[in-house]
């Protein structure tokens, strides 16, 4: 049984132990309260934070390969959405110092995932503040047990030659402090200093040439459009890099030189297809939401199976890339990146939509039609009881067995193909375009899409969506269900 101690003493001891300084005396706080340590996502209660809205991240880091070390600072421009005596950021690494508007702030780590910051002066609702966090650590040493991966999640990918920061649904806390939830999107500047002989690739567009000082070079990338934190990335290593423009859209393709020559050339040919694929998707879905496109291929992996991730403007592929995978990840630029999930349980809005666009690509390039695919895939799956038991509007938080389970992708894509049949191609195409345009730079829920679909159809669609997304058995083969 723990010994009872006064709460004030506990807080003081914790602050001194973790910051090395006594917390400054806050100004009159009035109704100011600590911000919540989570944004309210039912799957991941520690993700995101209450009381703040991040407008911009300026990430300025140095990465050393031997020994592995990430050091530097991240400066966040935040707006207080309530009166705050303190607020949290999501961060797994140890912290050296924190300032708020240039003034030293007290900080602590109440849990491995949370960085709690107490500014010298409380923030009033509407205040905009600059928060600078300095740190120095090896992210590969960090593991985090969360409701989505109770075995312990290790998201950092690096070896002696290369580092790539890419994973979903959590990645940011391994390399920068953040409000780590898709509901809070912000613009980014990412500046990485590392060995001068290596390439650095990140989101958006490169700002100028790398600045070389001695044997180190700093490369600056900028994402001007709002971005969810898990979609931010950088890669450093030796890459074969190609650049170009397709139909007015600049692209950057990069492939790790750790691959053999023939493999690397093959991957480069494929990832250079990002330009034409993005242009085709634009013809289907409306304006491309970002300033550049492309992709990066790496042999690194943090999980026991091949992955691809839709990092904003520049997806990352762990080997095994093919054209259909590129279509999927680039379709996410509209569905997942520009329009993000409001809760992680809404993941169907990302994966089902991107999977549907795979079949539209096949249809539009001489393969089977989406109607043909719907018919034969439905027949093949009709007897698979486990497939239909997954409610894709609420699949579950476990990243290995629920959130990214096959039905989220395939049952979701089948629902969209059936919806196209039900309301007609013209109305359906308009629905996707309008959805992408109306929610661009924001977030949405499954219920919001179902409402939009009902408006496009001109009548309620509750039974249709229940049959395709929720019911624990296959939909009946009726016209009302899109057959």
UniProtKB/TrEMBL annotation:
EC nos: 3.4.11.2
Signal peptide range in chain numbering: none
Keywords: Hydrolase, Metal-binding, Metalloprotease, Protease, Zinc
Family: Belongs to the peptidase M1 family.
Protein name: Aminopeptidase N
Annotated source species: Nocardioides panacisoli
Source superkingdom: Bacteria
PANTHER family: AMINOPEPTIDASE N (PTHR11533:SF297), PROTEASE M1 ZINC METALLOPROTEASE (PTHR11533)
Residues covered by the Peptidase M1 membrane alanine aminopeptidase domain: 327-468
Domain Aminopeptidase N-like N-terminal: 56-231
Known catalytic reactions: Release of an N-terminal amino acid, Xaa-|-Yaa- from a peptide, amide or arylamide. Xaa is preferably Ala, but may be most amino acids including Pro (slow action). When a terminal hydrophobic residue is followed by a prolyl residue, the two may be released as an intact Xaa-Pro dipeptide
Pfam families given in the database record: Peptidase_M1, Peptidase_M1_N
Entry keyword annotation includes Ribonucleoprotein: no
């Amino acid at each position: 049984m723990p010994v009872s101690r006064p709460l004030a003493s506990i807080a003081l001891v914790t602050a001194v132990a973790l910051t090395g300084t006594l917390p400054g005396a806050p100004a009159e706080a009035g109704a100011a309260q600590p911000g919540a340590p989570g944004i309210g996502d039912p799957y991941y209660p520690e993700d995101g934070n209450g009381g703040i809205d991040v407008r911009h991240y300026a990430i300025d880091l140095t990465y050393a390969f031997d020994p592995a070390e990430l050091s530097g600072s991240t400066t966040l421009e935040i707006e207080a959405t309530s009166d705050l005596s303190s607020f949290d950021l999501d961060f797994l690494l140890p912290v050296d110092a924190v300032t708020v508007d240039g003034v030293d702030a007290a900080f602590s780590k109440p849990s491995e995932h949370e960085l709690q910051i107490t500014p010298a002066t409380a923030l009033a609702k509407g205040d905009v503040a600059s928060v600078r966090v300095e740190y120095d650590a090896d992210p590969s040493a960090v593991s985090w047990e969360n409701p989505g991966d109770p075995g312990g999640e290790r998201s950092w990918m690096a070896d002696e030659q290369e580092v790539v920061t890419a994973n979903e649904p959590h990645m940011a806390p391994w390399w920068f402090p953040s409000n780590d939830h898709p509901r809070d999107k912000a613009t980014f500047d990412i500046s990485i200093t590392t060995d001068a002989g290596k390439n650095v690739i990140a989101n958006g567009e490169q700002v100028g040439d790398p600045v070389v000082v001695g044997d180190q070079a700093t490369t600056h990338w900028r994402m001007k459009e709002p971005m969810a934190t898990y979609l931010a990335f950088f890669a450093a290593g030796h890459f074969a890099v190609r650049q170009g423009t397709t139909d007015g859209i600049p692209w950057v393709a990069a492939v790790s030189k750790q691959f053999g020559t023939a493999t690397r050339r093959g991957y480069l040919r494929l990832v250079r297809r990002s330009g034409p694929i993005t242009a085709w998707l634009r013809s289907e879905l409306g304006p491309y939401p970002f300033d550049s496109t492309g992709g990066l291929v790496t042999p690194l992996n943090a999980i026991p199976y091949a992955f691809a991730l839709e990092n904003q403007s520049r997806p990352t592929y762990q080997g095994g890339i093919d054209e259909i995978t590129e279509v999927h990840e680039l379709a996410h630029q509209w569905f997942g990146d520009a329009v993000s999930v409001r809760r992680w349980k809404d993941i169907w809005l990302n994966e089902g939509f991107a999977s549907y666009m795979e079949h539209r690509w096949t249809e539009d390039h001489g393969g089977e039609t989406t109607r043909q695919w719907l018919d034969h895939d439905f027949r093949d799956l009709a007897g698979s009881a486990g497939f239909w038991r997954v409610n894709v509007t609420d699949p579950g938080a476990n990243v290995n067995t629920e959130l990214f389970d096959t039905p989220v992708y395939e049952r979701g894509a089948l629902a969209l193909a059936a919806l196209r049949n039900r309301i007609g191609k013209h109305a359906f195409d308009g629905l996707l375009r309008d959805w992408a345009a109306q929610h661009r730079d924001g977030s949405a829920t499954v219920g919001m899409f179902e409402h939009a679909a009902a408006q496009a159809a001109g009548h309620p669609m509750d039974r249709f969506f229940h049959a395709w997304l929720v019911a624990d058995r296959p939909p009946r083969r009726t016209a009302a269900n899109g057959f």
